[in-house]
Design a protein that fits this description.
The protein is α+β, with helices and mostly antiparallel strands. Helices cover about 25% and strands about 35% of the residues. A hairpin with a 4-residue loop joins strand 2 and strand 3. The longest helix has 22 residues. It starts with a helix and ends with a helix.
């Protein structure tokens, strides 16, 4: 009896191990395809040091001149006369970073999404997948530049499992604990977000959450919704991150094709 139980346990462990390895089998090749489409988003000003200030990540879509990122990545003082220039940096075929000016096409404040138009030649794009296919327990990956100002501007990929699909704005226990963004979300209607079993840092905001086999974008990594409606993952990383489902990105892009 004990031997049969031991054999059954071993088969169960081997099965789980095979499933986990199979889920990530194609990730290395997918990362190579995704990297050229993931860009640095920040500001540039000759009088600042450093002149380029990283604010987050973004990725190219549609015709290769549109960039998706988080709304909170944008500086609040862009309209001021002495404000720095909003830019993205795209990796060239030779491996160096090329700076491009961008303009803001549209901002979805509720879902913390922004669509930018990039000047210059278009780059390789990522395909936006159907986030309605994502299920709890699915394996996904995300890419960005975590703490890029300190660690350097290299693409970094993390693996993640969709822990749950939950509401972006949950009622607080008392009115005094309601945050401005939570109030706005409750007024305008909540929407679902993906909770992931991985830690994202500044520099991941705006980066793609993608299918490890196909590279299709299933969501956009987000930091503000974590801070305002959940735990403060910026100061105390908890191993939990969130992403905005890609169906909201698709709707944003469709309005500017």
């Amino acid at each position: 009896m004990k031997r049969r139980l031991f054999h059954a346990t071993c088969l169960w462990v081997l099965s789980l191990t095979w499933m986990g390895c199979h889920a990530w089998a194609g990730l290395a090749e997918t990362v190579l395809r995704v990297k050229p489409s993931v860009v640095l988003v920040g500001t540039f000003k000759t009088t600042e040091s450093p002149r380029f200030q990283l604010r987050g990540a973004g990725f190219l879509v549609a015709r290769g001149d549109l960039v998706v990122t988080n709304a909170h990545v944008l500086p609040a003082d862009l309209d001021k006369p002495d404000a720095p220039t909003l830019v993205v940096q795209v990796r060239s075929g030779q491996g160096d970073w090329q700076m491009r000016s961008v303009t803001v096409l549209e901002t979805d404040v509720l879902r913390d999404l922004t669509l930018l138009r990039m000047e210059g030649a278009p780059g390789p794009v990522l395909r936006i997948g159907d986030s309605r296919r994502v299920r709890e327990g699915d394996y996904l990956a995300f890419m960005g530049f975590p703490i890029g100002g300190s660690l350097g501007f290299s693409h970094v990929t993390h693996r993640a499992t969709v822990s749950t699909i939950t509401s972006a704005a949950l009622p607080s226990p008392s009115a005094g604990r309601l945050k401005e963004q939570a109030i706005r979300g409750l007024r305008n209607g909540t929407f679902d977000i993906f909770q992931l079993d991985a830690t994202a840092y500044p520099g991941n905001s705006g980066g793609p959450l993608f299918d490890p086999d196909t590279g299709e974008v299933m969501g956009v990594m987000n930091m503000v919704l974590i801070k305002n409606t959940r735990e403060s993952a910026l100061s105390q990383p908890s191993g939990i991150s969130y992403a905005i489902p890609s169906r909201y990105v698709q709707a944003l892009v469709d309005r500017h094709r």
